[in-house]
Amino acid sequence: MHTPTNDSDFSRTVEQLADDPNPYEPEVGSLPENDLTQADLENVNKTGTTTIGISTADGVVIATDMRASLGGRFVSNKNVQKVEQIHPTAALTLVGSVGGAQSFISTLRAEVNLYEARRGENMSIEALATLAGNFARGGPFFAIHPILGGVDDEGSHVYSIDPAGGVMEDDYTVTGSGMQLAYGHLEQAYEPDMSTEEAKTVAARGIKSAVERDTGSGNGVFLCEITDEGVDIHGHHDFDDVL
Asked: CB under 8 Å to 109, separation ≥6 — which residues?
């Protein structure tokens, strides 16, 4: 038998395998460390954002502004669609870092498609909210705080998903840097029996209130209407078009 030459690639491989590890046991690895500095974080594209979700008897209305910024001081984009369809009858908002939110949406959309392909039915909105919370808590998604809205056999639902994975359902909710301004309007204007059209007006006015004072929000409004028939999203740079 040929003896491996000292210090050859083959001899080193033999040494590495000397302990006879079990090939069926999982290999323990480690996640890369986050080396971002505060200066790096200031240059991350963030949505700043005001996002609103309102549940009605007929469906769900989601409204968002259109602005992305760098460090909350420079407007990097004036036409960001911050609400995306992720399910035949559900949508999710982008809040926080743009990259983290986009990755989060792509991951959830893929899981929803896999669920439908394997089971031949749509995932319930409660299950989708639980999945979103689990991903937010354990995944590599940086600084997100989205709203999930959807309609299923149980009715219409609005959830806020916090960065630690907390999932809270409510009749209406607001997230983002302009949330205090928008909440002030919703507390006065929301009615439990309002129609979807009324909810769209209330949500748009809430976004407009935030845009007036919050530097991280601005440049118009995206309105998303969700019913048991699907998801409809439209952007408006002029608030007069929807008020």
From this structure: 84, 86, 87
